[in-house]
């Protein structure tokens, strides 16, 4: 069937086509035909079918023209509304997902929907240190701490860069020691790096050359992490701080999900608790509710900056600490307004907040 359109009809279709040409993204299949050239929608008057030249045809054309005009006007209005609605929907979707987590180092809340609590009782059994919310702390990962005179109760230090004597010195000062290691990424210069296979690690972490996301479902990866837990125990660590467990919220190269992250953390918790060590969550806001029952704390970076501190309040409500870090741009020189902005956020109420430089050296200012 070939439709003959009046000038108004063509104008309506032209308007629709212009709207479609600006459509944000691929067109739905049902609208693709509207993006075609207008040449198919009308024919020059001198190329009408011969039957159209008869008087009856002329009358029929007049009747069809009125019906066609109404049809095309309604169709045009409906499609324009559809295009606008879909465009608004896509726009809203992009806007709402603009704060989604990635591996650029910002925040840690993530975009995944929260999971329900995990009921793995094996992950809670054992005797281990259970710190209370509000406890003071310091974190030094760039090098072994050179100043241990700070009046804080907890030090978070690197597992590999510190020996047992550093930890025993901190213990002698009445400190508890958390030992940091990356559980979800391959780091090329760690003593056990050669034990990973090529299939264990995927895409590179943005901003961290040579560091790759790990397949935390891999048996080999889990064996290596079990050995790291044994090393932490042998050095006298009171707890462990496993980093980069939010591969599900990044372009890792693997099919990681919040559920696989919870399973991995359950595995680590059972191992840590078996050595009488406690263990915490690092960032990963989407799995707070699923892990708060079997983990002993949260370590969060920049939740004030990214306005997501409310995600980590369940730890405070459970009487467990949120070890919270903000990285002011001007550190180590911080204005009073910058300090107040980082320390006085109402959603971070009860957090153990410290201000640090991004490389996590000895410098610290607490709240």
Quick recap of the structure?
The chain has 367 residues and is an alpha/beta fold. 32% of the residues lie in helices and 14% in strands. It folds into two domains: 7-96, no CATH class; 121-366, Aldolase class I (TIM Barrel, Alpha-Beta Barrel), CATH 3.20.20.
> How is the largest sheet built, in terms of strand order?
1-2-3-7-8-9-10-11-12
Could you say what the CATH architecture of the largest domain is? Alpha-Beta Barrel
Distance between the termini: 76 Å
- Helix and strand sequence: HHEEHEEEEHEHEHEHEHEE
Count of helical stretches: 8
* Estimated helix fraction: 25-40%
Q: Which residues sit in consecutive blocks of at least 5 with pLDDT less than 50?
A: 1-68, 83-102
Assigned CATH superfamily of the largest domain? Aldolase class I
- Please give the largest β-sheet: 9 strands, mixed
Output the radius of gyration.
Answer: 31 Å
> Total strand count, please?
12
Overall, the morphology is: globular
Description:
- Mean pLDDT is 79; it is low at 1-68 and 83-102.
- 32% of the residues lie in helices and 14% in strands.
- With 367 residues, the chain is α/β, with parallel strands linked by helices.
- The protein contains eight helices and twelve strands.
- It folds into two domains: 7-96, no CATH class; 121-366, Aldolase class I (TIM Barrel), CATH 3.20.20.70.
- The strands form two sheets. It has a nine-stranded mixed β-sheet with strand order 1-2-3-7-8-9-10-11-12.
């Amino acid at each position: 069937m070939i439709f003959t359109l009046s000038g108004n009809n063509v104008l309506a279709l032209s308007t629709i086509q212009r709207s479609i040409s600006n459509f944000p993204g691929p067109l739905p299949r049902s609208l693709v035909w509207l993006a075609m050239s207008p040449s198919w929608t009308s024919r020059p008057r001198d190329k009408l079918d011969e039957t159209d030249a008869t008087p009856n045809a002329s009358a029929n054309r007049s009747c069809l023209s009125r019906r066609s005009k109404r049809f095309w006007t309604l169709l045009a209005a409906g499609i324009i509304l559809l295009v606008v609605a879909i465009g608004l929907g896509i726009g809203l979707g992009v806007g709402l997902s603009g704060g989604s987590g990635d591996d650029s180092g910002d925040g840690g809340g993530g975009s995944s929907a929260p999971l329900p609590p995990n009921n793995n009782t094996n992950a809670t059994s054992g005797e281990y240190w259970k710190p209370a919310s509000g406890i003071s702390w310091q974190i030094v990962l760039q090098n072994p701490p050179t100043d241990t005179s700070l009046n804080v109760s907890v030090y978070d230090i690197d597992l590999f860069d510190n020996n047992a004597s550093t930890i025993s010195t901190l213990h002698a000062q009445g400190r508890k020691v958390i030992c940091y290691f990356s559980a979800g990424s391959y780091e090329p210069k760690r003593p056990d790096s050669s034990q990973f296979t090529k299939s264990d690690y995927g895409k590179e972490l943005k901003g961290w050359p040579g560091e790759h996301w790990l397949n935390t479902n891999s048996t080999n990866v889990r064996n290596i992490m079990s050995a790291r837990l044994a090393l932490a125990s042998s050095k006298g660590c009171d707890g462990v701080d496993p980093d980069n467990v939010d591969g599900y919220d990044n372009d890792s190269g693997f099919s990681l999900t919040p559920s696989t992250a919870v399973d991995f953390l359950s595995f680590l918790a059972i191992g840590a608790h078996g050595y009488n060590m406690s263990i915490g969550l690092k960032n990963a806001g989407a799995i707070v509710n699923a892990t708060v029952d079997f983990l002993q704390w949260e370590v969060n970076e920049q939740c004030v900056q990214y306005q997501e501190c409310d995600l980590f309040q369940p730890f405070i409500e459970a009487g467990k600490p949120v070890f919270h870090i903000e990285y002011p741009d001007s550190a180590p020189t911080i204005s009073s307004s910058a300090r107040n902005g980082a320390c006085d956020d109402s959603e971070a109420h009860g957090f153990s907040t410290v201000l640090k430089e991004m490389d996590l050296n000895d410098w610290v200012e607490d709240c």
